[in-house]
Amino acid sequence: MRIVLISTPIGFLGSGKGGGVELTLNSLVSGLLSLGHSVEVIAPKNSKLYESNEKAKLHFVDGEDQISWQHQNYNSPVSIPDNSLLAGMLEKGLDIAKKADVLLNMSYDWLPIWMTQNVDIPIAHIISMGSESLVISNLLSKVYDKYPNNFAFHSRIQADDYPFIKNPIIIGNGFKLDNYTFQDSVDGPLAWVGRVAPEKGLEDAVYVADKLSEKLKVWGVTEDKNYATKIEQSFPKGTIDWMGFLSTNELQKELGKCRVLLNTPKWNEAYGNVVVEALACGVPVIAYKRGGPSEIIQHGQTGYLAYPDDKKNMLSYVEIIKKIERKKCREWVEKNASTDIFANKVVNWLNKVIKEY
Ligand code: UDP
Is any atom of ligand 1 closer than 6 Å to the C-beta of 246? Predict the structure, then answer.
């Protein structure tokens, strides 16, 4: 199959601004290449793919980023800046896809979804977020009516955010296991990984660390500086150990040394890449029972699911985290979320899309 992938229009691949989509795209390219498919990627200028993905042709587009939907009002109208990166990537993608089988869109936005019903090339969409915008959800509902197979979701609970999606295509996600080393560090520190932004609920993890009089190691891009400062000022100095944004390789080395990952999203997390990355290193995860993480974590086997927003409940699980066998965490990823498993699901889905055209 010849597949043209459109990346996120928020930040170049490797910047961290695109969140989980950056890693998902790379994992998918690895899986598709290893299954023998041909892949071209349209991405913002300065983007980098994993070295092992060098067989995928990368096309660069320069332009203005979109504003991320999770940082706009739910009722905001669509806004497209002058010299739009999204429009530029779609233009290039459509052109290259004339010689391909399918255009696979990984940006969460209105324009590519609208195009589904207005161009002859099959456009398939990996929807990377829950319902974050009225205008996108309404359009999705309309297009889904005619093209129900063109949309895939990472988790069932994410798809439930769109009540009109009756039989969602669920593709999960994939991780290149050679990139993660198992570590048996049962006495390590507490970890938190993610974009530092309100929907990620960092303050609840800092609460847990503070109650235990421990430090919390925090990795990720600080997207919202005011939010970060406010949390820092609400807890004793030094409770947060800011570690910055690291490459996957550096991150997994550090993350593997931790005894648990605290995952505290306040929104309906579509999947939760960081949860699986921790598990791949042998690190159990305690998350709130909401969104993607609640479908990934096996309560009592690979971590614990606390009542949503119940910090004390989360704390109580940290106290018994040694009951979790770290090997089981890694095993879950091997059996459920390798790049091959992911790419196979995507290929089966794309075959269905292409057949209809
Ligand atoms: N990440 C990273 N380096 C860091 C912190 C985070 O590469 O120092 C990546 C991580 O690997 C994951 C992404 O950031 O792929 C966060 O994705 P997730 O699905 O957890 O949340 P999102 O940002 O998409 O809401």
Answer: yes
DSSP for 18-52, written as a single string: TTHHHHHHHHHHHHHHHTT-EEEEEEETT----GG
* Angle, helix 273-280 to helix 20-34, in steps of 10 degrees: 60
pLDDT digits (tens, 9 = 90+) for 175-189: 999 999 999 999 999
- Report d(CA 78, CA 87) in Å as an integer: 13
Same domain, 6 and 124: yes
pLDDT in tens, 265-308: 999 999 999 999 999 999 999 999 999 999 999 999 999 999 99
Asked whether residue 25 falls in the same domain as residue 11, the answer is: yes
Ligand 1 proximity of 245 Cβ (cutoff 6 Å): yes
Q: Give the domain CATH number at 155.
A: 3.40.50.2000
Which among 128, 160, 125 is positioned nearest to 350, based on CA atoms?
125
For ligand 1, atom 13, which residue shows the shortest CA distance?
Answer: 20
Which residues form the domain of 314? 177-336
Residue 208 half-sphere exposure, CB side, CA atoms within 13 Å? 29
Whether ligand 1 lies within 6 angstroms of the CB of 11 is answered as no
Closest Cα to atom 12 of ligand 1: 20
Q: Which atom of ligand 1 is nearest to the CA of 248?
A: 7
Query: How far is the centre of ligand 1, averaged over its atoms, from the C-alpha of 142 (Å)?
Result: 31
